[in-house]
């Protein structure tokens, strides 16, 4: 069971490069759906309804205003995710001083060249593929990505520390826009199954039908995805971290829902619903830069999850407990199984909380 989990996590990173190959196709697909929807809603149905007069005109004005406002926010958020780098580790990055524990960076100068993973220091992490230290919550996807959540084929980019908020806003505005379009085209869709004569050419009718089905499908699928990410934000975790720590009820970065929300969206309410941050938040909130994250001061450093590199030379088991009790033996067996899994799956050991 542990082995399959480690293999699954490794395969996710392995196929990031393949997913990037779908880039231009996925962008064209998104723009194609937007184009079909715009043609159906604005040009075929509610645009002409502006000249009908009465209640139909008022309804058309309301629908068109909401449609264009949400479309602008959707596209702004979408291209912010596509064009914003999710965050990478700066060259020669070193861990900062641990003010909570009074520890300083033990890796300086020549010590970095001979770095070996020290299981007793869970705060130091090293990427074997990039050959460099990496900050907490950082994962490899072609390169080390800060607070990586996942690689999304729809945005042709990794979702990480610097563009996660934009991704959430993209989901939010996509759900609102597709829901609006579904409701706006619902009367026209129902008319397809009535005995009344439907005005319009076959091409217009086909486009309306297609736009309704596409937007309904996207609204339902995005809703589930949005709910999942809301729960992740509330717990101050990512998709990868949720998978890694799924057997543990504790999490060192869970600071409460309000502070967890601010770790992603900032504290300035004026910027919560736009894909941008205030200069003040960027200055005083290191978490928005992806290198440092506040954690529970009383949380034991041994209880949070990390990924540590292993090699054939250091795939050794921890010594048995000196007390010789049963709990120590069980712990040794558990770590033994995980160590074996890590050695067999590319040399990565998935730690436990």
TrEMBL record:
Membrane topology, as annotated: Multi-pass membrane protein
Upper taxonomic lineage: Eukaryota, Viridiplantae, Streptophyta, Embryophyta, Tracheophyta
Every Palmitoyltransferase DHHC domain range: 122-245
EC identifiers of the protein: 2.3.1.225
UniProt biased composition (Gly residues): 344-353
InterPro entries registered for this protein in UniProt: Palmitoyltrfase_DHHC, PFA4/ZDH16/20/ERF2-like
Segments of skewed composition (Basic and acidic residues): 328-341
Catalytic activity: L-cysteinyl-[protein] + hexadecanoyl-CoA = S-hexadecanoyl-L-cysteinyl-[protein] + CoA
GO terms of molecular function: protein-cysteine S-palmitoyltransferase activity
Primary location group: membrane
Protein name stated in the entry: S-acyltransferase
Sequence similarity: Belongs to the DHHC palmitoyltransferase family.
Residue ranges of the TM segments: 21-41, 61-84, 166-192, 204-227
GO biological process: protein targeting to membrane
Intracellular or extracellular location(s): Endomembrane system
Domain notes: The DHHC domain is required for palmitoyltransferase activity.
Any Pfam family matching the protein: DHHC
GO cellular component, one term: Golgi apparatus
């Amino acid at each position: 069971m542990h082995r399959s989990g480690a293999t699954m996590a490794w395969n996710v990173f392995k196929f990031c490069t393949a997913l990037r190959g779908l880039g231009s196709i996925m962008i064209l697909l998104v723009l194609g759906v937007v184009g079909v929807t715009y043609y159906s809603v604005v040009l075929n149905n509610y645009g002409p309804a502006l000249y009908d007069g009465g209640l139909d005109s008022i309804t058309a004005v309301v629908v068109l205003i909401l449609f264009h406002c949400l479309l602008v926010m959707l596209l702004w958020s979408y291209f912010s995710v596509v064009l914003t780098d999710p965050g990478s580790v700066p060259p020669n990055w070193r861990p900062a001083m641990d003010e909570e524990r009074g520890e300083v960076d033990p890796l300086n100068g020549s010590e970095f060249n001979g770095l070996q993973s020290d299981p007793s220091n869970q705060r130091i992490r090293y990427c074997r593929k990039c050959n460099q230290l990496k900050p907490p919550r950082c994962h490899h996807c072609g390169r080390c990505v800060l607070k990586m959540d996942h690689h999304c084929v729809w945005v042709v980019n990794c979702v990480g520390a610097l563009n996660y908020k934009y991704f959430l806003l993209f989901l939010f505005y996509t759900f609102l826009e597709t829901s609006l379009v579904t409701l706006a085209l619902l009367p026209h869709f129902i008319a397809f199954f009535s005995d009344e004569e439907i005005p319009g050419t076959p091409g217009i009718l086909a486009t309306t039908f297609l736009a309704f089905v596409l937007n309904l499908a996207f609204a339902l699928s995005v809703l589930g995805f949005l709910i999942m990410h809301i729960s992740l934000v509330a717990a101050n975790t990512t998709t990868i971290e949720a998978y890694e720590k799924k057997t543990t009820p504790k999490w060192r970065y869970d600071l409460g829902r309000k502070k967890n929300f601010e770790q992603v969206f900032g504290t300035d309410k004026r910027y919560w619903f736009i894909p941008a941050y205030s200069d003040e938040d960027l200055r005083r909130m290191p978490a928005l830069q992806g290198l440092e994250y506040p954690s529970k001061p009383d949380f034991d450093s041994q209880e949070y999850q990390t990924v540590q590199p292993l090699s054939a030379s250091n795939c050794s088991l921890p010594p048995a407990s000196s007390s010789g009790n049963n709990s120590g033996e069980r712990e040794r067996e558990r770590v033994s199984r995980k160590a074996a899994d890590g050695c067999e799956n590319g040399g990565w050991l998935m730690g436990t909380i």
